[in-house]
Structures
1.
Amino acid sequence: MKTSGAVGKVLLSVYFVLFMVFLLAPLVVLVVFAFDDSTTATLPLEGWTTHWFSEAFTNGQLTNALVRSATIAAVAAVIATALGLMASVGLTSDRLRLRSLTVASLMLPLVVPYISLAVGLVILLQAIAVQTSLTAVVLGHVVIALPFAILVLLPRLRTLDPSMNEAARDLGAGDLTAFRLITLPLLGPALVSSFLISFVTSFDEFAIASFLAPAGQPTYPVFLYASSRTPALLPQVIAIGTLVIALSMALVLVAEGGRRWAEKRLVGDQEFDDEVSEDNLAEVLVISGKS
Amino acid sequence: MLPPLLFVALLIFAPIIYIALFSVGLRSNIPGTEVAFSLDNWDGFLFGENNPFRARFFYSMRVALLVSLVTTAAAYPLAYFLSFVARQRRYTLLLLLLAPFFTSYLLRVLAWQIMLNDEGVVTWAARAIGLIADDGNISWLIYSTFSVSLVLFYTWVPFVTLPIFAVLENMDHRLVEAAQDLGASRWTTFWRVTFPLSLPGVIAGFVFVMIPTTGEFITPLFVGGADNQLFGNSIQAFFGTTNWNLGSVLAMALIITVVILMLIFGRFLNTDLRAAPGGDEK
């Protein structure tokens, strides 16, 4: 491709590198302060310490909030993936009527602002005389994760070779058996992706949780927001934050690498179109970004 | 098919319907209050003289529009670099570009608060190199429209790069070669061929920022001052107190705004996002 001259290429490369610095700088700052032996997150640095980490891990409220968020995220991710699978199978069926209306309904949570959805759920709960509850948080998170689950599962379901299912049926398998023995294992990697994206979506979600989580049971983002206003707690919050940053980055990289590796193995190298996987990656990344 | 649809109906449509009912006074959160159909709250919001929430709405839309435009403009060269310059390593670099995006949103905003506050990293650096006095501050650095816009810009740039990148990748590159064979300069080729072909991605990217930014309320909580709170913060405040009816008017206005945006721009998202890879082989 000779579409940009040498000067243009250099300029674009410099721009990209500078942008990466801009993008990573705040995160680096956060990591640095996690190890700074000072009660305030200000320069100059006062010395190396790991005691914010030990303090954070002995802070029961903080660890409880983390565990609470992880539990909510896991439950929400399982339900979202199960519902997403049902929806995706339904959407691949040729017999589906009102297709565009169905798709629009399922994708609606992508565009409805979370703040509006959150207050709507508050009103709904009040209407059925339920106060704030963690179950409500889970259900709210399932709603916002569902479109992501579908957008991960549906493309994968469409690229499956229908002749495999037909072969299973010719050999005497019923609809359900064929689905269980052929479709489900082939979908394995996509199901894992769907679970992880739903998990991350829920774990990071603030708007709905801030309204629906009971006062004494904050999720991790809600706790993070509350304690970022308390200077004494800030260093611990930053310390845990760097762990969360490191873990979530590692998770995404491992998940994406693993999915591609597994799908290549499952589908067979010669049949596997790498571009499809790459496009799928871009798509998943696009959709997983809505915060 | 039925369970997911029922779920969405119960947890998306029902809340929206309830918001609508509250916004016209047909429901109330205060027990014992008489409920009756009334458009007073809507009237006040839409036509009331100097209505503070309408002013807040337009301020938010201006911020959202500005952020979307600047973000899209900044993301384009990144996508172009990935697609045309970093050929071999483009997916690795893309993942690197998106890495910050995978970290907690709240943490990234908190990091910016630490960067921008009055004793923060940026102020410290400005003092160190003598840009400002040793006890000086940069007044617009935090709790300003600038800080809110900057953090939103930071949040969305990686994300906007994606649809533009996707379009550049799927473009027919022979058209570029043809233009050059016919004597067009690189500059002309870009503006007459590449850029027009990439417009769907540009518009998709723009909408990707515009829609979530219209409902944004987290960033102003950390880096916005009293004057820089966005429309989402107004909604949030109402549901912290008691007047859910007026709050519902604002929440409904936000939903309607987003739906209008989707009606205008939705088809660009359809072609680029919803069409499944490999789906056209079917």
2.
Amino acid sequence: MTVTRVAESRTEFKLKSLPEDAISSVKFAPKSNQFLLVSSWDCSVRLYDVSANIERHKYNHELPVLDVCFRDAVHSYSGGLDQTLKMYDLNASTETVLGDHKGGIRCLEFASEVNAVLTGSWDGTVKMWDSRVPNCVGTYNQGNERVYTMSIVGEKFVVGTSGRKIFVWDVRNMGHVNQRRESSLKYQTRCIRVFPNKQGYVLSSIEGRVAVEYLDSNPEVQKKKYAFKCHRIKEAGVEKIYPVNAISFHSVYNTFATGGSDGYVNIWDGFNKKRLCQFHRYNTAVSSLSFSYDGSALAIACSQLDENQVEDPKPEDTIYIRYVTDQETKPK
Amino acid sequence: MGRKKKKASKPWCWYCNREFDDEKILIQHQKAKHFKCHICHKKLYTGPGLSIHCMQVHKEAIDKVPNSLPNRSNIEIEIYGMEGIPPEDIKEHERQKTGGGKASDSDDDEPAAKKKATSALLGPGPSSVTPGILPTPMGPVPPGMYPGPMAMNPMMPHFMQQRMMMPGMRPLFPAASIAVSTPSKPTFPAYSNATISAPPTTSSAAADAKENGDVKPPAANSCPLVTATGAGSKIIHPPEDVSLEEIRARNIKYRPKPKPDAPSTPVSAPPMITPSTSQAEHNFQVAAHMSAAVAAARQQQAAAMRRPMPMGMMGMLGQVRVPVPVSMPVPVLPVMPQFNLMRPLQPGMLLPGGMMPMSAMFPGGVPGLPMMQPRFR
């Protein structure tokens, strides 16, 4: 009770004992808004107890970690530049190497539908792993394109790669690709997230633009797709267009937050084409976002990934936890 | 005259052929685009209204409706939303919609007005062209397509073409805009789907671009440079079309000491190049980089299938990996020899892209690599 009161009294706060380098990914636990996994370029994976604002666990990879995900409350998976998939038991504090890729592991998703973990790599493949033993169940070529982003909800599994390709899979039947698409955006795909209701996905590009797309290939449904500009700042007559690095869905309302290199976080109602709100500008680029399972908290990772853009003094890498309100996240 | 649309088809603007979801928005559009006084920015309700306003208030004659198609610039005709459109034009529009209503995937329902505006804004400098900007129909993409050899050879001609058709192309973006909940953007629903309206008769450039887009191999599209879309805008991203993470991963401090990370060859990212001067050259760099990555990945795959030998090589390198302290000084020498090993890769890659035979990867030949063996195994 007291703990939650403390949290609620502040709408937003910074996590303590943060990683020492850029934050690559933040992920809330599947069934609680207390625990947050964080992967970082400082080669660490950390588990935070957000309610108490303390770091609970930390383990390392040999090289920077690019993504992390939960299997359940007590197991995490992580991968990164060392090309190795690790499973970590948070209770026993033991790590298991499940296997590796031939390129950096860019993203990880846990497929609860088939109880497997999926890894997407710059080697142009997605691999599926049995969630408990070091056993690669299958390797799935993604058109020889480097995997940049993946998202799964239920059986719907969408992979975004270099070359603006999109592959839609059904995790129950990985024998063939369901759909191959080309991104409707003209620039490099940055992030894809599937709608919690599985109807479609949201895709962002490096050119300050976000597309809302539908999986049903029926032309009537496809007509509903659209894209919009965002994360652009006009300064002295020049419009600066920023990459949209992160998307996270509110699982209850099907609204989503986007985070850009401009340091802003916006919340959108994709079905009604409305922006619900914009938070204040963060100290630097937003590199990752994660809503908690019930949508009450949003983790916001702020890190400048583009080293050409690093100002002096270098903005610190931070993670904010923001307790959002219905007003900010619920369709009006 | 004055007949209101009752059909399912959408309201459209007679002046610029643009379609809207809602007539109210069409009216807002017309007031903002076509009936706005260029002197005092007052929004009038009709073409004649604007004409009279300018005459009486500013003592200026207006002979054309602003931002209209050339054959639709008549200021005398009184049109308000869908009301007042000459019946023959309604029929014509219908016909175009049903008859010529091809591919709903095209994004060119942007008004001609906008096209003009954009090209004007871009000015004479074609510096903003991006190879990836071409309007590819998002139709069938051949399976397993990747920016390989095709992207390479016709690079030069394409590049030239793109420069020329640039003004018409830019608006072909799916420039959809969500309601950013600003009332000043009343037009957003018009973008909301890709139903094509009659292609604007004015800009033949757009048509050209389209044809070109059709014949163009999609592969050429998938290797764009990240360049700004116009003089007035700048994409805050390194010029290479490679993800921020990959670029960052090249940083010496994130590299395992003895292990060259095959997919990302050069440590130093190519410097920012102004697109207008040497974009083509840069294209090659990016292309080279990408195909190098692909080729490297393939090589690894092939190797994996073939034998433990190259795998062993990888593994060995993997073992000697040492986490590099973040504070390590940048010019670390021991790494360089490996890069040199990778160097020949680049120029080689340029020509046939990912199809490079394995032997070309290591021109000197890697001792012990069973080049031809698998066939006989």
